[in-house]
Amino acid sequence: MSDQNNHQNDSRLILRVENLSKSFGGVKAVVSVSFDLHEGQLLGVIGPNGSGKTTLVNLITGFLKPDLGRIVYKGKEITGWAPYRIARIGIARTFQMIRPFAELPSFKNLIIPLYSPRVKALSGGKYGDLDAVAKDYLEEVGFERESAVTYKSAGSLPHGYLKRLELAKCMALRADLVILDELFSGLSIAELASIVPIIEKLVSEGKTVIMIEHRLRELFRIADRVVVLNYGSVIADGVPSEVMERSEVRKAYLGSE
Amino acid sequence: MKQKRKERIDRGIKARSDDVFSLNSFREMLYVAVPPLAPVLLLTILPLFLPSYWQKVLISTCVFALLAMSWDFLVGVGMVSLGQALFFGVGAYIAGVSNKILGLPIWIDLPLATVLGGVICTVLLTPVLRLRGVYFSMVTLVLPLMLERIIEATGIFGGTEGITGIKAFTNPFVESYVIIFVTLFALFAFRRLVTTDYGLVLKAIKDNDRAVMSVGINIYWMKAQALFISGCVGSFCGAFLTHVYGFVGMPSFALDYSILPLSSAVVGGMGTFAGSFMGAFILVPLSEALRGIGGLRIVLYSFFLVVFIVALPEGIFHYIQRKYQQFERWVEVDK
């Protein structure tokens, strides 16, 4: 099979991004970004507004085609694949602008990932009663079982519940790599306190997580490693505490004097 | 300051009969059974005493109801079609050609036109599946007009003359009951389909197609399936009317078959199929009834259309449903 290539000796490597570049017209959104990601890691991707973080997510998940570079997932090159194919091999993502399937009740929102061919294949070719499974996943992210929030239309949910619903979608897809695009934005401290344990649980189950974040303090508490982007390029890559000490990172965030 | 606010509350009988185990009186059973049984009974009885002219009106009403439901189904997947005439015309020509030129009997060419028509329409529209909103609508509007001109210019399938002498149904009752059965079947099948898991995925594509893609579902494949289902229904309509008239020609691609289903669905209430069904059963007979008054017919018809849309923008079906399930009262609130 084609996935038996030169990466097979490093079984812990889950994602390798090589020289990824993308420009929109004259704007270089992502410039030669490279990094490796190992299974079970929680990688934070930070950077000022417009530094190319969301473009990077869109490139990895296939919503944009890169101009240059390669993306290798579990030893298989996935550069240029359609988004649904990438999702099928186990990469789930959330969107920065959260738009649930507003007219459906919360638990019915999970029917969509549960209906995915990936879940069907993983559960032995059968779909079965998805409603019950959907409610299980909702309970896992803190929707009280048989409570009103489970049945309310997703469009009327409070912000904190919406974010948890997004996480439940990634879990329902049984993804191995979960990419969270600004999950923490707009959440109160109390809401954060209920979401962070869910992410920690994902990692403890062996999932790999990439978090695009602006809320650095909360991110640094859980991230193993941080990649800093500025003007589309990686300017730092390392352990959170040490990355923030570097002068180029401080300059990117605070501006030079 | 005291102000008044309208309050809507579910009727007791609605709340009680939501749960099937609590149907403990004849009245509650009727409450649940009457709405689905009413159209079935009505359509079963009507052909028995309608005069032959109104029999034909009933047939074309059913055809427009089917077209409206197939339009409504596509809208539910986020595809606003302005060209149900494409489906209709393709089905009509397949039936005409296979019956007259290939000599197939009605009972073979009707299903053939239904399925083959669905396939052809899906293939024709596949290149534009990626288009959304008004761009998709524009292509669907243009395609039937284009096919019409191709037939005119090349003279294939009888050109401007069309194909005449296609076999008609021998028995008018068979004719009526075939279309009535298909219409009722489509009504209940569509209503059931959109509540299944499959239907939910289709609905989700309309809500947020990127989110559906991001969980590993190929939305273009799903949309093609929806087009096929809608195309089959539309093609059946065309094929059926071809056998009723014994003729197929360029008018099969006429704008009427695109616009009237659309207005039926809007007047009746979108997203319920029952609304499309009701809309057709109001608009088509209305248009026939106005035939007697001559020149001002279209003016009056348009006037009614505007009245319906302005007075009941939610659609007739949604209005009736609400009145059936809820009562309203004015309550005083402190401001």
Helix content of chain A: 25-40%
Assembly state (oligomeric): heterodimer
The CA-CA distance between the termini of chain B, in Å, is 5 Å
Strand content of chain B: 5-15%
Radius of gyration of chain A: 18 Å
CATH architecture assignment name of the domain at 13-98 and 174-254 in chain A: 3-Layer(aba) Sandwich
The H/E string of chain B reads: EHHHHHHEHHHHEHHHHE
CATH class of the domain at 13-98 and 174-254 in chain A: Alpha Beta
Gross geometry of chain B: globular
Per DSSP, the total helix count of chain A is 12
Overall radius of gyration of chain B? 22 Å
- Which ranges of chain B are low-confidence, i.e. pLDDT below 50, for 5 or more consecutive residues? none
For the largest interface, the chains and their residue counts are:
A-B, 31 and 18 residues
Remind me, CATH topology of chain B? ABC transporter involved in vitamin B12 uptake, BtuC
CATH topology of the domain at 13-98 and 174-254 in chain A: Rossmann fold
What is the SS-derived class of chain A? alpha/beta
Estimate the helix proportion of chain B, in percent. Answer: 55-70%
Describe the protein.
The complex is a heterodimer of chains A (257) and B (335). Chain A is of the alpha/beta class. Chain A has a domain at 13-98 and 174-254: Rossmann fold (3-Layer(aba) Sandwich). Chain A has 12 helices and 10 strands. In chain A, the strands form 2 sheets. In chain A, strands 6-7-8-3-9-10 form a 6-stranded mixed beta sheet, with helices on both faces. In chain A, strands 2-1-4-5 form a 4-stranded antiparallel beta sheet, covered by helices on one side. In chain A, a hairpin with a 2-residue loop joins β9 and β10. In chain A, α8 runs parallel beside α9 (189-204). The longest helix of chain A has 16 residues, at 189-204. Chain A is globular. The model of chain A is unreliable at 1-9 (pLDDT under 50). The mean pLDDT of chain B is 91. Chain B is mostly helical and 335 residues long. The termini of chain B are close together. Chain B has a single domain, classed as ABC transporter involved in vitamin B12 uptake, BtuC (Orthogonal Bundle). In chain B, α3 (52-76) packs antiparallel against α10 (219-245) and α4 packs across α11 (256-268). Helix content of chain B is 70%, strand content 7%. The longest helix of chain B has 27 residues, at 219-245. In chain B, the strands form 2 sheets. A two-stranded antiparallel ribbon of chain B has the order 1-4. The chains are: A alpha/beta (257), B mainly alpha (335). The A-B interface holds A 61, 63, 82-85, 87-88, 92-93, 95, 99-104, 108, 111-118, 127, 130, 169, 172-173 and B 197-198, 200-201, 203-204, 207-208, 210-219.
